[in-house]
Structure formats: structure tokens, C-alpha cells
Design goal:
- This protein is an alpha+beta fold.
- Helices cover about 30% and strands about 20% of the residues.
- The chain contains six helices and twelve strands.
- The longest helix is centred in the first third of the chain and has 16 residues.
- The chain starts with a helix and ends with a strand.
Length: about 240
């Protein structure tokens, strides 16, 4: 009952502020136990969605020595990750080990960005939306999504945002719609127009960061692991 009440308070904060950091979640030496405990905790907030075509519910976020590409997800690299949203209502990160250098998390409120946009043709396109590259995760092997997904839309008179530039850009290249990449460039200009709108912080072991995907865009700075220390690992 206490946990249910606790999760209700967190959801209220996510509706109001867009993101919440929970401190001092226990990090076990047994890595499988970490996954189990984290999954059990996050089930308090609803159904956990599959993260990839392997249908994994909890994935490891760590550098596998790869670079981001159309078919390589950003969480498998140490690259800088653009401010974006993920699928589902909430996104969550559980820090097991932090990086020796870099890896700071970033976030910005979507409504703050929207209020800055005074280009009506851009706004129209953002509400119209784009197709996404499937990044090799589609069960039917289709390269891009069949339908377009809006970047901004209203649900129950509340502004919602969904945005992930890289798969949108790859889908536009696949369709040879190169001129439409200009819309993404313009939107990114508004995202980064005022640096003080973007928060930056470093997650520490035991931190769980939960993000409302419809209110907040989140990202990550590039990181470097130390050869002598344990490698950065989040779930």
C-alpha cells in the first residue's frame, strides 16, 4: 500500500513537472537481481513495454564500441544523444555505474520549446508529423513506419510532444525527401535557442530517473569509460 501511494505521488509529479529522480535505490552486486528489482518497481506505474524486437522489457544501456547508425540504437554507443522522447508514456533510467567522464543527462520542457516557435509553417508540419525509420526492429522487416507520427498534438486539450530526430531523418533519406530535413533543423534551432531552458545533471549509482515522454525531451552527453574503473551501465 505504501509503494502504491508512493507511485501515485510520483505520477502526480510527472504530470506537473515532467520528470522525477528517485535517489538511493539499492544497487545489488547481483546484476540479475538489479534487473528484477527495477522491473518490479517500475511495474507500479503500469505495463512495461518491449524495448526491441527481442521483446526485452529491461535493456542495458552501455557502450558496445559501436557508432549510431540507422540500425544501431543510441543506447548501445557512447555517443551524444539528441534531446528526444521515447515510446510509451514514461521512460525510465536506473543508474548502476556512472561514467568516468561525461554522460550527463539533459532535458527540456516541450511546452517551453513550443511557446518559442513563431514559424506557422513549421508548426503545421510538426502537427502533421513524420514517418520513422524502424532501425531494424520491425517484425515484418519494413524499413519505415507506414503512418506519420506528429511531433506535437493535443490530447484532452493538453499539449503532447513526441520527437526523435535520428529515425525521422533516416526515414526522410530513405524516402528521398531531403528538403524536409530543413524542418528538423528549424525545430532543433528552437530546442537549443535558449541554453538556460536545458537542464543538465549526472545520474549517480542508485538514481532512477523517470520522464514523462509527452512533456519532456531528454538526452545525454557523450561519455568516456575509464580503463581502470567499472564501465558506465544503466538499465
Amino acid at each position: 500500500k505504501y509503494l502504491t501511494k508512493f507511485s501515485k505521488e510520483i505520477i502526480d509529479n510527472l504530470e506537473l513537472n515532467g520528470s522525477v529522480i528517485i535517489k538511493d535505490f539499492i544497487v545489488e552486486k547481483n546484476h540479475q537481481k538489479n534487473k528484477k528489482n527495477y522491473k518490479k518497481f517500475m511495474e507500479l506505474f503500469g505495463k512495461i513495454l518491449s524495448q526491441n524486437k527481442k521483446r526485452e522489457k529491461i535493456v542495458e544501456i552501455k557502450d558496445l564500441g559501436k557508432k549510431w547508425s540507422a540500425n544501431t540504437r543510441g543506447y548501445k554507443t557512447n555517443d551524444f544523444l539528441d534531446l528526444h522522447t521515447d515510446g510509451g508514456s514514461l521512460a525510465s533510467l536506473f543508474c548502476i555505474k556512472d561514467a568516468a567522464y561525461g554522460g550527463e543527462s539533459t532535458c527540456v520542457n516541450a511546452k517551453t520549446i513550443y511557446d518559442l516557435i513563431n514559424d506557422q509553417s513549421l508548426k503545421k508540419k510538426l502537427f502533421e508529423g513524420f514517418r520513422y525509420h524502424r532501425r531494424g526492429e520491425a517484425s515484418n522487416y519494413s524499413k519505415i513506419t507506414k503512418k506519420k507520427y506528429p511531433i506535437f498534438f493535443y490530447n484532452k486539450k493538453i499539449l503532447h510532444c513526441t520527437y526523435n530526430r535520428k529515425p525521422i531523418e533516416e526515414a526522410l533519406k530513405f524516402q528521398k525527401k531531403y528538403s524536409e530535413i530543413n524542418y528538423l533543423d528549424k525545430f532543433d534551432e528552437y530546442i537549443f535557442k535558449k541554453k538556460n531552458n536545458i537542464s543538465q545533471f549526472k545520474l549517480k549509482p542508485g538514481d532512477i530517473w523517470i520522464v514523462n515522454n509527452f512533456k519532456v525531451l531528454h538526452g545525454r552527453k557523450k561519455f568516456i569509460n575509464s580503463k581502470k574503473k567499472q564501465k558506465r551501465l544503466l538499465l
